[in-house]
Write a structure and sequence with these properties.
CATH topology of the largest domain: Rossmann fold
Order of helices and strands: HHHEHHEHEHEHHEEHEEHEHHHHHE
Strand content: 5-15%
Helix content: 25-40%
Number of strands: 10
Structural class: alpha/beta
Oligomer: single chain
Number of helices: 16
Strand order of the largest sheet: 8-7-9-5-6-10
Shape: globular
Length: about 475
């Protein structure tokens, strides 16, 4: 399979009923027409994507009819959330719209996951596409305000979005929802839906116990639609081109394209747009190929799952294909680990970092993750005088026991995600864990960490390559 090249930037016809079902299936979509540096201006954005639909509707009945049509189109498109949970976007929209009260739309680009750069990349280079999605969603759920939430350290994205909002304010009609930008702490769980709502309400950015759910009572006690930035960027394209166009790429159960943050031993790490179901090998090839042999790949980020090197051949990046390996696509993170690294030491470092990201409001997170991190550190330290691996077995059993006590008992999904990544590492790298039990730390343990943590971010950059399924 060869990567499809990015289309030449050209002015499309103005969106209309006749053009919304256009047959262009080429990738990239989200990254179409991006400049060599900097963000797309409003003029550039309109040249590539055309005017935003629904802007001509002012009468209440007309707006309501067009909004219902958009939600139906999103449902036909099969758009799933791109924040990690893959929840149907139309279902969320209908839940907010059914409240029949003045709502708020929150664009979640907080991205506290240090292994992910896709949402900040969208704000950096195509902020108008993201804002389009938020405004269209606002019209669909009867919201008069759109809040863009960015990680406080995402300086380029904040600057680009601020300029984009100013550009739009100059030509906005009195009927357009108000768009504003706010920053969010870069804590790992600060971007969780209820944590984000809590922050916007003036409280700490940490998950809250529900109900009421945000769609019932969120920001300012109003029905609130919280969607990932990438999800809304896709929505903006569906509104222009239709559900059939959206489904021309991807798989039947996971249609469309997705942004992937690729890191590790590849020539050009960065953010790539792929078709759901594209092969891992095509993604690595588009990044210039691997620069070292691989131990394995972490899919889905730090709440995801490891897949060992022996299972990577023919691996496809969609939930239906990844399920056989106990993995999901998640928020679109692919972290490759080279054979030069020690997966046991990497897992121990990651487990300790995840324990440190607790908001310290429930026992499974405060005590369970700390105990898990300590047990994994003991596994990494090994026991050189343990030729039969008895100590290893006991430590592994302790991890399993702690995992069962932590899973599904936290105030949010953070403990579950930590358990997933730890247990999958122990399964994917059984030989390396066993070696540590018999011989203690290996030479690779002293190497610098390969997994990106806040002190070592993923190299930034976006690619205009679109990858298709074989």
């Amino acid at each position: 399979m060869n990567p499809a090249t990015a289309p030449t930037m050209q002015a499309p016809p103005a969106p209309s009923a006749a053009t919304r079902e256009q047959p262009a299936a080429a990738l990239p979509r989200l990254l179409a027409g991006i400049p060599a540096s900097g963000a797309m201006t409003l003029e550039d954005h309109l040249t590539v994507h055309g005017e935003m639909p629904l802007t001509g509707a002012h009468r209440r009945r007309q707006v309501r009819e067009q909004a219902a049509t958009l939600i139906d189109e999103v449902q036909r498109a099969g758009l799933l959330g791109h924040g990690g949970a893959a929840f149907p976007a139309a279902t969320k929209m209908r839940a907010v719209a059914s409240q029949r009260r003045r709502a708020i739309v929150v664009i979640n680009a907080a991205e506290g996951e240090p292994a992910s750069l896709k949402d900040r990349t969208l704000l950096e280079i195509v902020p108008h596409l993201v804002i389009d999605g938020g405004v269209l969603a606002a019209r669909a759920v009867s919201a008069d305000e759109v809040i863009v939430c960015a990680c406080e350290s995402a300086h380029a994205g904040i600057e680009a979005t601020t300029r984009a909002i100013a550009e739009r304010d100059q030509r906005a009609s009195s009927h357009a929802p108000k768009v504003r930008l706010t920053t969010v702490p870069c804590h790992y769980v600060a971007g969780q839906e209820t944590a984000l709502v809590s922050h916007l309400n003036g409280a700490p950015a940490r998950p809250t116990f529900t109900p009421p759910m945000p769609f019932q009572q969120g920001v300012a006690r109003r029905p609130t639609l919280v969607n990932n930035a990438e999800t809304l960027a896709h929505l903006a394209l569906i509104a222009r081109h239709g559900a059939s166009w959206f489904r021309q790429v991807g798989t039947p159960t996971q249609p469309g394209s997705a942004l992937v943050t690729l890191a590790g031993p590849v020539a050009r790490p960065g953010v790539y747009e792929i078709e759901h179901g594209a092969s891992l090998s095509s993604l690595v090839a588009a990044a210039g190929g691997a620069t070292a042999r691989l131990h394995g790949v972490l899919v889905g980020g730090y709440a995801g799952s490891w897949i060992g090197a022996e299972h990577l051949h023919g691996l496809a990046l969609s939930n239906e294909h990844l399920a056989a390996h106990g993995a999901t696509f998640g928020a679109g993170v692919v972290l490759a680990l080279s054979e030069l690294a020690c997966p046991v030491a990497e897992t121990a470092r990651l487990a300790r970092w995840l324990a440190g990201q607790s908001t310290r409001q429930c026992g499974p997170c405060v005590h369970g993750l700390d105990a898990l991190a300590t047990s994994v550190a003991q596994l990494a330290a090994g026991g050189g005088a343990d030729p039969e691996g008895v100590g290893q077995a006991q430590a592994a059993q302790r991890v399993d026991r702690l995992a069962s006590l932590v899973t599904r008992r936290g105030a949010c999904g953070h403990p579950d995600g930590a358990v997933s990544v730890i247990l999958s590492a122990m399964d994917a790298f059984q030989a390396q864990f066993a070696d540590h039990a018999r011989h203690g730390p290996c030479d690779a343990c002293a190497r610098p960490a390969e997994l990106p943590l806040p002190a070592r971010p993923v190299p930034s950059g976006s690619q205009r390559t679109g990858l298709r399924r074989q």
